[in-house]
Amino acid sequence: MEVGLEIPVIDPRKCVAKIANKVNLSERTKLQAMNFMYDVIRTKI
Predict the structure, then answer these.
(1) Domain for residue 31, yes or no?
(2) pLDDT at 1 over 70
(3) Which of the four, 1, 23, 36, 41, has the lowest number of CB atoms within 10 Å?
């Protein structure tokens, strides 16, 4: 049954960036992690 709720789509790369910032990863490592996530997302579609 439809309830009319809109569920926002969460970009996993933003989650990676948030976690990387919280654990103080270097920008290079953060970029690599985001690139890995991009590859995962791209292969799932």
Answers:
(1) yes
(2) no
(3) 1
Q: Contacts for 42-45 with beta carbons within 8 Å, 24 or more apart?
A: none
Cα-only R_g, the chain: 14
Mean pLDDT of the chain: 87
Q: How far apart (Å, rounded) are the C-alpha atoms in residues 43 and 7?
A: 23
Question: Roughly what angle, to the nearest 10 degrees, separates helices 27-44 and 12-22?
Answer: 160
3 belongs to a structural domain? no
By residue range, what is the domain housing residue 27?
A: 12-44
